[in-house]
Amino acid sequence: MDQTQNKTNPLPAIRLGEVRYQVPEPGMPRRVTARSAAVEVMTDLHRVPAATIPAAMSLDDARQAMIVRGVRMLLVTDERRAVLGLVTATDLLGEQPVMTARHRSVAVADLTVADIMTMVDAIEAFALQDVLNAHVGDVVRELRSLGRQHALVVEPAEAGEQAQIRGVFSASQIARQLGIPPFVGEVARTFAEIEAAIGA
Question: Domain 30-198 is classified in which CATH homologous superfamily?
Fold first, then answer.
């Protein structure tokens, strides 16, 4: 195939020599570097079911749901699958439940997810098209600048439909894929470890 045809055809066919087929890596997501494609560290909700809970769930049940699903963030949804907000492990295990309960003069046990979640209009998100053109290092820098360990990826709406959440970025998953040992800590330490690993 000549060079002229390559320039005008964005998807040229190639002939194969000796090849092997890809198999999933057991247990661990694929290892990445700062220059890896951002989608390599995105949890793709086309392939992995979204971890969701209702807004009326108790905080204890929400903590248990995180443990069972092995995640540190849950989407808060209604019966129509509309996203109302999100709740993280930091929200559940930090000072927010105690402060909210004190402010409302109720017991922490009486609070629900709706009382401490981040509302949907305050959630940071990236457009899928931008993610497809970004690298892991770009995601790390943006999460750090936002001061967040999670961000959502939104796919634009098609005619007559609502936009949909297509994926999730998690600092802890990025750390795992960079080969950083598991840890639980504040945002600053999380990103210090990640940036040291990628040489940012």
Answer: CBS-domain (3.10.580.10)
Residue 100 tokens, joined: 């909210």
pLDDT at residue 45 above 70? yes
Q: Calculate what percentage of the chain has a pLDDT beyond 70.
A: 85
- The number of CA neighbours under 13 Å toward the Cβ of 112 is 8
Which residues, including other chains, have CB under 8 Å from residue 152's CB and lie 6 or more apart? 86, 123, 124, 125, 126, 165, 167, 168, 169
Using DSSP bridges, classify how beta strands 83-88 and 52-54 pair: parallel, antiparallel or unpaired. Answer: unpaired
Quick one: tokens of 199? 């040489």
Give 198 or 74, the one with higher predicted confidence.
Answer: 74
Residue written as token pair 């220059």: 35
Give Cα separations from 140 to 84, 115, 118, 166, 187 (angstroms).
Answer: 25, 29, 21, 19, 12
Contact between 172 and 143 under an 8 Å Cβ cutoff? The reply is: no
Cα separation, 73 vs 92, in Å, equals: 10
The per-residue pLDDT for 157 is 79
Q: Quick one: tokens of 22? A: 């890809």
How far is the CA of 53 from the CAs of 76, 111, 114, 118, 164, in angstroms? 5, 15, 10, 13, 17
Query: Span 123-142, mean pLDDT?
Result: 94
> Which of 63, 53, 59 is closest to 107 using CA atoms?
59
* Residue type present at position 55: A
Give the chain's mean pLDDT: 86
